[in-house]
Amino acid sequence: MILRRPFPLDTPSRHTFRYTFYAALCVFLILVLLQPFGLDELPFLTRSFHAALYGLVTFISTTVNSFLLPGLFPAVYREEKWTVGKELLHMCWHLVPITIGNWLLTHWLYGVPLSLHTLFTFLWITFVVGIFPLWLNVLLKQQRLLKKYQAGATRLDEQLHQPQSISQETTHLPAAIVFESENGKEQFTVAAADIRYITSADNYMRIYFLQENKLASHLLRNTLRKAEGVLSPFPQFFRCHRAYIVNLAVAEHVSGNAQGYKLHLKDVAEVIPVSRNFNAKLTEVLTQQQSVK
């Protein structure tokens, strides 16, 4: 079902302001150029000022929503669980505070009564005007990103399965890696070839490794940044996500969906996500590994 398909979750950042500004600009241009709802009867300067106020309502509402909701409901706003359906509901919710803001602004500008009837009228108009382009944009974006990352994953998979492997380049390095806890009181030693991936857990990192042909894990109080430093001499280890470091030497397959690339590791059931910020770096790493062979 298309509503259950994975969809990328845009985390709040400075780019959010750009997107909300574009939404506000669209509102402004529609009101100034198309002049709906009787705006054609107003002088140009007055119409432009009123249109700017409605655009400001859109900008403030969407910006506050974009930053506030993920902070209030972190368990809901998780990319690994984000779907087309959730994105559609999220976009529809944006229309609610915009409607309320427009309702209050219209009362202030034109004296429209603040009644439930006028509120539901505004809701109806806002949803009728906004729902179709929003849904169409989400569905088209999902299809575009799906095709993009599936095609990219196919190319990466071909590079991954070249005759020589990444691990063959590391024979001159120590066979074991020693991780220390943040306070230096605990150490964990594991063979580099046995490590599958490392993930962060609050102020801890969990190291997943192969032990007696079974996947095991060890929890250590430290950060992935420290782990990156320890693993820096070993080119097969790659930071693919803010919460994951993987051993590319045991990567068996690269897949892709609308959220980006996914790594499938030997002996690991979990599919490891690749952050979109690291897509280009993953391509570069695999390409470099092949170019030196």
UniProtKB/TrEMBL annotation:
Note the InterPro entries from the entry.
Answer: LytR-like, LytTR_DNA-bd_dom
Where in this chain does the record put each HTH LytTR-type domain? 179-288
Q: What is this protein called?
A: LytTR family transcriptional regulator
Q: Which UniProt keywords apply?
A: Membrane, Transmembrane, Transmembrane helix
Organism per entry: Niastella caeni
User: Taxonomically, what lineage is the organism?
Assistant: Bacteria, Pseudomonadati, Bacteroidota, Chitinophagia, Chitinophagales
Where, by residue number, does the polypeptide cross the bilayer?
Answer: 21-39, 51-76, 88-110, 122-140
One MF term from GO for this chain? phosphorelay response regulator activity
